Amino acid sequence: MNYEPVIGLEVHVQLKTKTKVFCGCSTEFGNEPNSQVCPVCLGFPGSLPVLNRAALDHAIKAGLALNCTVAEYTKFDRKHYYYPDLPKNIQISQYDLPVSKDGYLDIEIDGRTKRIRIRRAHLEEDAGKLIHKETTSLIDYNRTGQPLLEIVSEPDMNSPEEAYEYLTDLKSVIQYTDVSDCDMEKGTLRCDANISLRPAGTTGLGVKSELKNLNSFKAVREALAYEIERHRQILNEGGQVVQETRLWDEKTGQTLAMRTKEEAKDYRYFPEPDLPPFTPVKEEIDRIKKEIPELPKEKCRRFMKEHGLGKSDAQQLTLSMQDAEFAEAVIRAFPGANKKPAVNWLIGPLASEANARNRQMHELGVSPEDLVELVRFMEDQEISNLAAKTVLSDMIDTHRTAAQIVKEKNLIQISDESSIENDIDAVIAENPKVVNDLTGGRSNALMFLVGQVMKRTKGKANPKVVQDMLKRRFPNV
Amino acid sequence: MDLFRSTAHELIDLVSGGKTTSEAIIASLDARIREKDTGVKAYVRRQKNAVDPIRETGRRSGPLSGIPVAVKDNICTDGIETSCCSKILAGFRPPYDATVITKLRDAGAVIIPDKLNMDEFAFGSSTENSCFGPTHNPWDLGRVPGGSSGGSAAAVAADEAIMALGSDTGGSIRQPAAFCGVVGLKPTYGRVSRYGLIAFASSLDQIGPLTKDVHDSCLLMNVIAGRDPMDSTSSDRTPPDYTKSLVQDVKGLKIGIPKEYFAQGMDREVRTIVEEAIKKLERLGATAAEVSLPHTQYAVPVYYIVATAEASSNLSRFDGVQYGLRSSDTRPITGNKLIDMYKHTRGEGFGAEAKRRILLGTFALSHGYYDAYYLRALKVRTLITRDFADVFKECDCIITPTTPTPAFTIGEKTDDPLQMYLSDVLTISANLAGIPAISVPCGFTKAGLPVGMQILAPAFMEETLFRAAFTYEQATPWHTMRPKL
Amino acid sequence: MALSKQTVEYVAHLSRIELTEEELEKLSKQLESIIGFIDALRAADVAGVRPTDHILPLNNALRPDEPRPSLPIEKTLANAPRKDGRFFAVPKVIE
Description:
Chain A is of the alpha+beta class. Chain A has helices spanning 53-65, 160-177, 217-236, 282-290, 296-307, 311-317, 321-333, 340-356, 368-379, 385-398, 402-409, 417-430, 432-439, 444-456, 463-473; strands at 3-14, 51-52, 69-70, 77-80, 90-93, 100-109, 112-125, 129-132, 136-140, 147-153, 189-199, 209-214, 244-249, 254-257, 270-271. The longest helix of chain A is centred in the middle third of the chain and has 20 residues, at 217-236. Chain C is an alpha+beta fold. The model of chain C has no long low-confidence stretch (mean pLDDT 93). Chains in contact: A-B, A-C, B-C.
């Protein structure tokens, strides 16, 4: 029996506001435990919530960027469950009238476009953090009350790769709107996945498992792959999948059932009586819409059209908005109609440097003009490709320009044949055996000789020129 | 005259005229409390030290300069124990003042640190549900003062307080005011901030004044009314100067008398006395006509769904984690130590009525019952609100008895919770509709028990209430009478 | 409607309240009688009636995104039944 995976994702993004969603406590990260709390976010008796205007605006903005319809009338509801990281044992969330709904993201998968529908994006408050010790658990409420936007997709994904693409695109779009940093490591983006299998070609839904403790996009993909197999095995053996929550164990690469028996959850949702409903007006929504910049897909299309980039290159360069703006500045500063050299350098060496340093391209301290200068040195064959890469590293480390570094380290490539002539003579003289091999027809001997010339000139000779010169000396190779 | 017998407006005149001081007022009150409260038991947790008025107000001057105000035990006072008269909150010292407290302090008032007795979490109509035991009605110590603001009403009636704050969710200011022969106002929903009021039912609760006369009620409302940015449900309408309503003029005032409120089951004396009071108003120039509030019969059931649902939710936070009682009982129930802690704590800390209401409310919100109970109750609430809107098209105010009977004896209704609930029938609808209502003393039964007349007005029309109540009050002797203690 | 002891036990569990046998017995009877009384609501004609969402007219109460002082740690922990340094402490949570 052929089974098809059906995947839905619930993503929580922490909104970038200065204060919490229902009180004026700061949302700054990394301060002492329980230093950013007040009667409201602690849920002390008598306290009342008041909605942060910026949180509502951010939620609307994100919803619009995700092609959702923004509600004309939206309200909050209480979700009841007992847990020590939830001070009131109530989470203020949204149940039936969320801020926005019915949106979508179009992802690229296997060369085609697939629409993943977004059911809703709603506002809610975050819970605190628990630290587990031997016999006690400790509670830090700094995070309680931080504004979260919960984005729920329809179960439209059918493979772990699609889930990965969706997450990548979602993160990209949200970052463009600047309403969240979407950093899984810092916890400003969290993801839970729902997965079930159904016989291929059918439309019903099988029994699902809910996956938690997914700490990276990679983990999401791996956990889903594992779970799909697990379900498949059970079904193929004629068994029944149990609906349950499972935790991803990074170390063993497995999902594990939770230790406590899960009971059916009755959250007893009812409208939050302390918060009257909100009615975002059209003018407000329009104003917010205008603040949304050119989004990744549009930017990508425009890069392809305006700057002649290939699809794959354009996609990679538009993942992050600030990097995209940086890249565009580089492309515009690069002279001539053919932007490929600049693009190659952005996608290749600059991106590698950024990854290695765990930063974004625009954060490396290299200005677009600086990068263009470096690429031109290389294009004009004044320095070798290899040299250029080390110059780039140096530029980032020391905040100097390419020109300064090339000059200081005397990296200008020697392309003038007359200068290299002597070195070629010397290498030929020193390597009679290789020359013999060469004349005997062994072409890798040629590269060996090129290498020797490079060594002799301390890398400064232009390898292409050396190669051409050697080929002329040995025309039969 | 003894200072403790005065009204706030009299004391303000004396203080501003240099004839007395805040210290003298407080000393007089203190002596009165020491003398009489062992019998009345209006206050809980009497502090060892006397109140220092200078420390309490920091010498701030304002409209209530130097006037002491007593506070119900569900209103938060920074650093001063506030426990809703419940074991589960014993020892809780809020780290902040309720907005009304801040406003009172800014107005120069002295907050009495001893709190006033109440039914636990405001669940009750007799103050018998307090973990400290009941307050006794100063007019007859064998009877209840009403509830849940029984301590507030009794203290004012016994001259153990000059003025007091209470809270009203289904009649908890008005009913004790009627039982104790004082003035009690439930403001329009949203008129007074709820920030710092330990919540019972969020869509029904209001803090309000209990005072010796209507003038004092206006003075207190002038200080506590108004928009609060810390309370999303507080109205942004600017409150007027309520003392401007202290005019004796009811000419042309149209009074509606809802027939459903004078139904069977009402004490005959109460009915007669209130009807007499209405006639008095007519003689003073008002006109009265019968009206109908057809959905009155549903008020109590709607209330006991909506209020308990919200209460069960609001009380979820009492779990022994951050404040209040944490049970030391380690006997396993589920085997999960944390869940067991919750269950032991809440089992020990909540009284019987609290448990009843939490279970009822949780049931009404639970899966499978939500539509039939909670949702339906909200729809009927709309019908009840509409009834009032329709009636107010024809009249300026509505008058009813505040309670169907005078104060009952302590222990009389404690066996049958349903009986207790039914006694709220006349006050509950005002909370459901969010409209303001006042109870003013309008006479005594043959046994010498006070009877209260309730006046209701459209939302934000407290001025109508004050004008009618003041006119009636000034034409009658009731507000000058005090119990013999 | 009849309210079984089982239902009351379940609701008590949802509410995290421990009840003695005696309480369970008594409360079941009382709740059944109260709910019986509340069932009178069934007779009300609510066709086409919207539930009361909020009593006040809508006022879109919003707060500016400006930080306000948080509580000092002494006040935050002042009422804690059990604490550990700057943290509140509870019996260990089992996942």
